[in-house]
Amino acid sequence: MQKRFVSMTTREIIIDTADQLIRGNGFNAFSFKDISNKIGIKTASIHYHFPTKSDLGVATVKEHIARLERIKAELSGESPLVKLNRFLSIYAQIKSDNKVCLVGSLATDLNTVDDAVKNELKDFAERVLNWVADVLADGKEQKVFEFQVPPRTKALMVITNILAIVQLSRLTDDQDFDIVKETILQELSPKK
């Protein structure tokens, strides 16, 4: 058993492994057998926890929602700049791990996953969008950020840029991620 699994339940290990496979190869590119081979349990054990692949997909997205909510709670008293930097650091870690984000990965499979996974993914994407929009609105109100468009529009621009550069920088220069991240922050900085 891998070190990161030491204090995890079998269910959590299955979700974590599915998450790694989804963000590494895509939802349609793995099977329960792949998970079984990676963690050393029978596929029947996986089916015990997740009768269908859709059930596992929903659980994986729900885990990301829970992580987002924990991050938001941890940062509740922090400044908008700290919150935005934390958001960007999530994508920096994804880039460092040579993965893509869950939304980016599952969005490419959207036409082939069932409604339960789609609905959960839409909920997650909306939560991320709302959080970033709220952070930007608070930052604008506190004069930490400056931008002309509505906060939701600016949040869409920030999210799509950082999501896309994670994927694109896998093909281009590694520094491209940092350049885009720094540009996002510079463009939000109040002009003197």
Automatic annotation (TrEMBL):
SUPFAM superfamilies: Homeodomain-like (SSF46689), Tetracyclin repressor-like, C-terminal domain (SSF48498). Residues 8-68 form the HTH tetR-type domain. Gene3D superfamilies: Tetracycline Repressor, domain 2. InterPro entries: Homeodomain-like_sf (IPR009057), HTH_TetR (IPR001647), Tet_transcr_reg_TetR-rel_C_sf (IPR036271). GO terms for molecular function: DNA binding. The keyword Transcription regulation applies. Residues 31-50 bind DNA. The keyword Lipid biosynthesis does not apply. It comes from the Bacteria. Keywords: DNA-binding, Transcription, Transcription regulation. Pfam families: TetR_N. This is TetR family transcriptional regulator. It comes from Pontibacter mucosus. The lineage of its organism: Bacteria, Pseudomonadati, Bacteroidota, Cytophagia, Cytophagales.
